[in-house]
Structures are given as C-alpha cells and as structure tokens.
Amino acid sequence: MLSTFDNYTLYVLCCQVVKVEHCERVHIIAAAKRICIANCRECIFYLGVNHQPLIVGDNHKLQVSVPFNSVIEGTHLLL
Fold it and tell me: 67: Cβ–Cβ under 8 A, 6 or more apart, which residues?
C-alpha cells in the first residue's frame, strides 16, 4: 500500500495488488495485476495492469497515461 505521499515519483514493479491512497502530485509507474486508487489528487499513473483500475473515493485531476492491459512494442512482462 502506498499512502500519503506528496510530490514523489514512485516505481512499483511485479506486485499482485497495488493500493494508492491519500497521495498528492505524485507520478506512479506500476506493473501489477490490479491497482486501486483512493482519495488522490493531481496524480499521474503509468500503468501496466491486467485488470481495469479501481478508482474510488474523492479523487481530483487524475491522469492514467497508458491504458490498462496495453502492450508496448519490444517489451515482455510476466506477472
């Protein structure tokens, strides 16, 4: 679980489930099976996830820059 970060860039790799809550102005690069985003503000998510992100709570100005379950040419990711 990632909680209460402010103005960070975070890398989360090879996880089953990532939960992000109460973060502000962070960039999160994540490779996981699932991600849950709760009560975050002004965050940017670069996701490599197998399931659609779960976005709950009071979120403002979120950006998801790479669609879930996408494939980037020349890469191979096993979770």
Answer: 47
CA gap 38, 32 in Å, rounded = 17
Q: 12-33 burial, b if ≥16 CB within 10 A, otherwise e?
A: eeeeeebebbebbebebbbbbe
Q: Is the pTM of this model over 0.85?
A: no
Give me the pLDDT at residue 4, please: 83
Number of C-alpha atoms within 13 angstroms, CB side, residue 52?
3
Contact 49, 34 (CB under 8 A): yes
